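Cross-posting from the chemistry board since nobody answered there.

I work mostly on the small-molecule side, so proteins are not my area. We synthesized butane-2,3-dione and want a rough idea of how it might sit in this target. Sequence and SMILES are below. Is it possible to get a predicted 3D structure of the two together?
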Amino acid sequence: MADKKVALITGAGQGIGKAIAERLNRDGFAVALLGRHLDKVQAVADELNQAGGDAFAVQADVADQQAVFDAVAKVKDHYGDFNVMINNAGVAPSDPIESVTPEQLDYAYKINVGGVIWGTQAAVKAFKELNHGGKIINGSSQAGQEGNPNLTVYGSTKFAIRGITQTTSKELAPDHITVNAYCPGIVKTPMMEDIAKNVAKEAGKSEEWGMEQFAKNISLKRLSDPSDVANLVSFLASDDSNYITGQSILVDGGMVYR
Ligand SMILES: NC(=O)C1=CN([C@@H]2O[C@H](COP(=O)(O)OP(=O)(O)OC[C@H]3O[C@@H](n4cnc5c(N)ncnc54)[C@H](O)[C@@H]3O)[C@@H](O)[C@H]2O)C=CC1
Ligand SMILES: CC(=O)C(C)=O
């Protein structure tokens, strides 16, 4: 049994997932980094290990149920324990409603919604085998709390993740498993840059204009760094959040008020 708690973060090769891995490693967790491309998550794990941390890279596509189960089992075997599952990986098609295709719908739902469901199932199996509870933390979005133009498909997956978070929190409470979600705002990552580019292209404007469309209603008047999101996930992964379950918490600098 590991002397540290073990957290697995999906989509940990860049952006918010990478920031979460760095933060939890600093918090004293052993971190498993899951990504579609092993070289990318391995590079982040190497960085963390060279800095004295404890990181382990695993390859899986979160849309593939068996691959996710295999990855979680591998992490459990590697560390001898498993405590926190962070279903962070996601993709963000950003097109007007009239351009949505069946392929796009299928792709986004299999990764964003399927990935959370398979990640939850695999984590529950591992927690039960280890005879203890655990924490499941899901990546939703402010776009899962409020409709955003051009994000019908993406936003609907993020609304679904809030629903899954509520439902599974009730189902899994008797097993001492909590389930919560984080809802970031406009975070400076490759995903957000792509969205801003697409929306700007559609309108025949610059990428800066695209980002401004999303950023103009932030009360704190700055875009989010991935570390802002990692700060919330650090709390949700810690014992300080033990009495919180079923919640989807906004970390958006004041965009959406609930
Ligand atoms: N950047 C933003 O402004 C916001 C992001 N989010 C959510 O936060 C999460 C992380 O977003 P970012 O870091 O911005 O995105 P990103 O695109 O920069 O990074 C996502 C990572 O997930 C990986 N990934 C994608 N599909 C995968 C799959 N099928 N299997 C395994 N790995 C996969 C990608 O390869 C990439 O490394 C996503 O769920 C996103 O929807 C939520 C609100 C705002
Ligand atoms: C990418 C995302 O989740 C936004 C714009 O809220």
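Reply from a structural biologist on the board:
Welcome over. Reading the output above for you: The longest strand covers residues 177-184. The helical segments are 15-26, 38-50, 65-79, 102-129, 152-172, 190-203, 207-215, 226-237. Happy to explain the token format if needed.
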